[in-house]
Amino acid sequence: MLNKKVIENVLYAALSTGGDFAEIFVEDRFNTNINMVGGYVENSISGRDFGVGIRIFHGLNSIYAYTNNSKEDNLIKVAKEAALAIKSSKKDMILNLMESNINNRHLIKIMPSNAEKAKKVELLKRGYESAKAYDPLITQVTSNYFDEEQNVLIANSEGLMVQDKRVRTRFKIQSVASKDGETQIGFYGPGGSMGFEIFDKIDVEEVGKEASRIAKTMILADYCPSGVMPVVIHNEFGGVLFHEACGHGLEATFVSKRTSVFADKLGEQVASPLVTAIDDGTIPNEWGSLNRDDEGTPTQRNVLIENGILKSYLVDKLNGKRMGMESTGSARRQSYKFPPTSRMNNTFIANGNSTFEEIISSTEKGLFAKKLGGGSVNPATGDFNFAVMEGYLIENGKITKPVRGATLIGTGIKVLENIDMVGNNQTFGQGVCGSLSGMVPTNVGQPTIRIKSLTVGGRKGDE
User: Fold this and answer.
1) Measured between alpha carbons, how far is residue 332 from residues 59, 130, 168, 434 in Å?
2) Beta bridge mates, 346
3) Which helix (H) or strand (E) holds 389?
4) 216 alpha-carbon distance from chain centroid
5) Where does the Metalloprotease TldD/E N-terminal domain start and stop, copy by copy (predicted)?
6) In the 8-state DSSP scheme, what is residue 11?
7) Spatial distance between the Cα atoms of 302 and 288, rounded to a whole number of angstroms
8) Following DSSP, what letter does each residue of 184-207 receive, concatenated?
9) What would the mean pLDDT of 413-440 be, rounded to a whole number?
């Protein structure tokens, strides 16, 4: 991508005004994105994006610049212009870049670029037809195929030099059900750090049926009652609640500035003793996994909360300097156009000892949130609200009728304290998370959990 001598010259230029640390991030990305609406391909885009990001530290400050012109003279020019923001004495420094070997956990059997586009369109057609044929109430289906190959080279003035290839593939279907002038949406979108072989494990017809099942169930549902009640949140996409309401507050991006409710709480009880929460970027072929983070640090399994005790944060290099902590391999960025910061990979609540059946049968009355949708959170306070994509009432220890329009309202740290049952059926759901360093693929996950008391917003009124 760039040879060693060019990289060294660019790093020297970046440090020419007295910076403490310099880094170069080279990215060469290929992707395919195909959308099908109503059974017809609406757009099909295949492209390449190449660029170089240059970052400089001076004390606890950072300067970032990027370009898609990789000629040596231009890279040196960009590095020197960025370095002008630093007014300090130049330090004597000798670079000795040593290329590191990658421990590749994510073996790819079939590169997506080797699969014919006609095969990708065929998958979309099959998923569409399955979703559309599910029920006459399904009035619109959108299917999407996505793959990418991201080649990166990361080097810095501490001597690091590493290259990696990242491959991801995802298949998504959104179904719309309509009745009496109202609509409800169902969505399902599995993916992984895998090649085209992912379709040996993803049945696109089942993806279509699942999206339509949710939409049909919710269009026929009554409105959800409101009030404070026990809420059982299912596995897979239920994990988005922990991701948004608690996970972001554990990122050093916010902790280092003390704009997180979890700042200065290491070693304290912040959750029920039943809760152990983990972020793990090393799980083979999972959607949010990486061999190395976007600063070149090996990813790792980070236990954030253990038996309710706050054990760790998600830390990148710059915020680690501010906090006096080492990186946890958690630096991520959307592309070379963004400087990295601390982000989640595969974040989940670990398995407990209760079965799904025990959790439901011991709940006299409440809400079963089978799938969560979108929401918002304030990392400084942990205040959140989340839409329930698919919900049901629990009555006399049994799941009864479906309900729609439910919203979960609360505070992340309070939710953690109020978890009184944790299941043993942990799974992952795939998503894309946005923050200061752009949009990155992340997994959310958990077993079924019960929150003994949570505010539920609904259109039916209190019950």
Assistant:
1) 21, 36, 16, 11
2) 443
3) strand 383-395
4) 28
5) 22-83
6) H
7) 14
8) EEEEE--EES--GGGGGT--HHHH
9) 96
- Of 183, 237, 244, nearest to 210 by C-alpha is 237
- Give CA–CA dist 401/399, Å, rounded: 7
**Cα–Cα distance for residue pair 429/334, rounded to 1 Å:** 20
pLDDT band at 90 (very low <50, low <70, confident <90, very high): confident
C-alpha 430/C-alpha 337 separation (Å) is: 24
The model carries a pTM of: 0.95
- The Cα–Cα gap between 280 and 284 comes to 10
Architecture of domain 4-219: 2-Layer Sandwich (3.30)
Residue intervals in the chain for CATH 3.30.2290.10: 4-219
Given 3-state DSSP classes, what are the helix, strand and coil percentages for the chain, each rounded to the nearest 5? 20, 45, 35
In whole angstroms, what is the distance from residue 333 CA to residue 314 CA? 14
Question: DSSP label at 448?
Answer: -
pLDDT at position 309: 98
Reported residue count of the chain is 463
Say how far apart CA 312 and CA 326 lie, in whole Å.
Answer: 11
